[in-house]
C-alpha cells in the first residue's frame, strides 16, 4: 500500500478551503479542544494568551507566510468576502460530517469511544454558520444601494 486517502475529509477544489480548515482552531472555539475534547479549552495553544508559552504562532503570522508563498492574501481577496464565506462553508461542512458521525453513533455503528461529542459539535457548527450568515446579511443591508 502506498497511501490512504480519506475522501470524506479531502478538499478537492479551491485551496482556500484547506487554509480555512488549518486556521479554524484560531477562529472557531469548539475546534480547539482536540479529539474527544481532550484539550481543556482554557489551556488550548490556540488562545492568544497561551501562544507565547505553547510556541503556537498567531493566525495572522501563518496567513502572512501563506500570502508570501502563494501571492495573494485570502483575508482580502474578493474584498474579504471569500474568506468569510469560506468560514461559513467550513462550518457547514464540519456540521454535516459530525451529523453523519452522530447518525452512526445512534445506529450503533460508531467507530470511536468519543463519538458522542459530535452530538454537541453538530449543533455548534450549524448555529455558528447561521449566526455568521445573519451577521453578513445585516452588514450588507446597512450599505446604501442605488
Observed structural traits:
single chain; 146 residues; mainly alpha; globular
SSE pattern, N- to C-terminal: HHHHH
Radius of gyration, taken over Cα atoms and rounded to an integer in Å? 17 Å
Uncertain stretches: none
> If helices are DSSP runs of H or I spanning 4 or more residues, what is the number of helices?
5
Instruction: Bin the helical content.
Output: 40-55%
How much β-strand is present in the residues? under 5%
Helix/sheet category: mainly alpha
Overall pLDDT level: 83
Give an overview in words:
The chain has 146 residues and is mainly α. Helix 1 (16-27) crosses helix 4 (81-106) and helix 4 packs antiparallel against helix 5 (117-142). The chain is 55% helix and 0% strand. The protein has one domain (16-139). The longest helix is centred in the middle third of the chain and has 26 residues, at 81-106. It is globular.
